[in-house]
């Protein structure tokens, strides 16, 4: 595989430059004093430019062609064939969009951030509308340059969820809408059935940190190949399969924020840490898509972390750390408190039940905007109408409770939102298969033994890195394409019990 080796060697520099930029980005959010910002922006710009230039160089194109010829006769399952396939995909994405358009998008979105932040603060949608109009126009041009067969949205979605089609996402959301909207309405009738005050008391931040770290270590996040720090926005970043870092943030008056945030990021990190070591430094390392990545964080955070089995093991430890807050709260009351549903207006604060309705709304609006069925000036009203239809509530403002709440559109991230829901659907689909293969998993979790689940995830998902496209991976792992049935069954069973429906 001489040609494949040449391609790999050529791209090693790209991988190293990207990882070096990631180290600087991590430092910026975790350690850097504010004064470092201007110099850091320059350093990051240089590294990103060098990585980009090296990657989109004509030489890369020639090396890919030569490698493609070399792997042509190989089984699709062969690592070399997979590597060339993944590099080709990324290369096409990176080279199809004209440089002038890439630069214009970068310029407009960097200015848009300020405009959006101010508009959000002042809950003034009209102040952001012209900027969003401009961004949408550029994203349409980008989609045309990338190319698509059926729907313009396909081109943008493909950047985050390779080969996923808009019609398939619509079908999944259609099934979700039919069953979930009436179910949510039923729960809303009985919101009083669950009291979440036990987790809204004052919780010492140091002790929260101590407990959170104990939990993620126990789950299997390897701290000899990772670490946890504090940052304003929690994230996971990796510089190697053997250096995958996470961050969290603490809220004194809402304990679930840091704990489930840590478990969530640890879920992302364990996916990266579980990659086959032979893929180190190549394009095959990492997660295969944002949706599959999110399936791993959500599986640990919600399916495991918000389960009775999990807390039947950990609750005693938590009570001992917080006797004043939880001494009089029994396990069942605590379990219900961490699973409380609310009439959520804010996506990032939404519970498991309502979360995907927030995503569905954004996905529908993005499509309508891109296809010209909805004008930007009518977006605010369309947003509010969908909130009323799906969640039975109208936002009191257009700022942090309404149409301006998310940073994504101002950053040019259109086509990104559905990956959150795809991750939620997959989290339960994979979980069901894991339990079917290893029936002891729930009982293992109840005695604080997480190795059986992690081993299953490593063997079936993590080790493969980017070798299989998300649809192939899901088909291989579960024997069927992505579906929403498992997720709906899980939600209905869990919340029918919690809310006594
Ligand atoms: Zn995530």
Round the mean pLDDT to the nearest integer and report it: 96
Q: Give me the Rg, rounded.
A: 23 Å
Ligands bound here?
zinc ion
Number of strands: 3
Query: What composes the largest sheet?
Result: 3 strands, mixed
Largest beta sheet: what is the strand line-up? 1-3-2
Beta-strand proportion: under 5%
Element-level helix/strand string? HHHHHHHHHEEEHHHHHHHHHHHH
The name of the CATH architecture of the largest domain is: Orthogonal Bundle
CATH fold naming of the largest domain = Neurolysin, domain 3
CATH first level of the largest domain: which class?
A: Mainly Alpha
Helical fraction equals 55-70%
| Span between termini | 61 Å
Oligomer: single chain
Global shape: globular
Entry keywords:
501 residues; mainly alpha; Neurolysin, domain 3; 2 domains; three-stranded mixed β-sheet; 21 helices; 64% helix; binds zinc ion
């Amino acid at each position: 595989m001489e040609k494949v080796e040449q391609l790999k060697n050529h791209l090693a520099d790209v991988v190293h430059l990207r990882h070096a930029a990631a180290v600087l980005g991590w430092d910026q959010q975790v350690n850097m004093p504010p004064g470092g910002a201007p110099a850091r922006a320059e350093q990051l710009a240089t590294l990103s430019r060098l990585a980009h230039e090296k990657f989109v160089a004509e030489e890369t194109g020639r090396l890919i062609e030569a490698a493609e010829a070399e792997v042509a006769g190989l089984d699709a399952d062969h690592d070399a064939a997979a590597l060339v396939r993944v590099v080709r995909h990324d290369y096409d994405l990176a080279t199809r969009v004209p440089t002038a358009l890439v630069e214009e998008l970068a310029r407009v979105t960097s200015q848009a951030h300020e405009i959006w932040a101010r508009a959000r603060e002042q809950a003034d949608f009209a102040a952001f509308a012209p900027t969003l109009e401009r961004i949408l126009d550029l994203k349409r041009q980008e989609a045309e340059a990338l190319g698509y067969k059926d729907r313009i949205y396909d081109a943008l979605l493909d950047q985050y969820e390779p080969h996923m089609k808009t019609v398939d996402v619509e079908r999944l959301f259609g099934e979700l809408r039919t069953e979930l909207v009436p179910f949510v309405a039923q729960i809303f009738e009985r919101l009083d059935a669950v009291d979440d005050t036990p987790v809204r008391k004052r919780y010492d931040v140091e002790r929260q940190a101590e407990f959170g770290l104990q939990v993620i270590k126990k789950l299997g996040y390897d701290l000899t190949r990772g670490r946890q720090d504090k940052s304003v926005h929690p994230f996971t970043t990796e510089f190697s399969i053997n250096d995958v870092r996470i961050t969290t943030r603490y809220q004194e008056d809402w304990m679930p924020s840091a704990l489930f945030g840590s478990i969530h990021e640890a879920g992302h990190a364990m996916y990266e840490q579980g990659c086959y070591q032979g893929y180190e430094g190549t394009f095959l390392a990492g997660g295969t898509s944002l949706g599959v990545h999110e399936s791993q964080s959500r599986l640990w955070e919600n399916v495991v972390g918000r389960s009775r089995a999990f807390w039947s093991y950990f609750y005693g430890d938590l009570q001992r750390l917080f006797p004043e807050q939880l001494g009089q709260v029994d396990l069942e009351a605590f379990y219900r408190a961490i699973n409380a549903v609310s009439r959520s207006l804010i996506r990032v604060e939404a519970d498991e039940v309502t979360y995907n309705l927030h995503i569905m709304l954004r996905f529908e609006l993005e499509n309508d905007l891109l296809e010209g069925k909805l004008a930007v000036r009518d977006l605010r009203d369309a947003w509010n109408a969908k909130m009323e239809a799906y969640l039975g509530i109208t936002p009191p403002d257009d700022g942090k409770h309404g149409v301006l709440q998310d940073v994504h559109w101002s950053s040019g991230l259109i086509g990104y939102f559905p990956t959150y829901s795809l991750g939620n659907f997959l989290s339960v689909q994979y979980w069901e298969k894991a339990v079917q293969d290893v029936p002891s998993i729930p009982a293992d979790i109840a005695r604080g033994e997480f190795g059986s689940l992690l081993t299953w995830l490593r063997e079936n998902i993590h080790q493969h890195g980017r070798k299989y496209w998300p649809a192939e991976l899901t088909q291989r792992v579960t024997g069927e394409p992505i579906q929403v049935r498992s997720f709906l069954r899980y939600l209905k069973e869990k919340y029918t019990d919690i809310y006594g429906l």
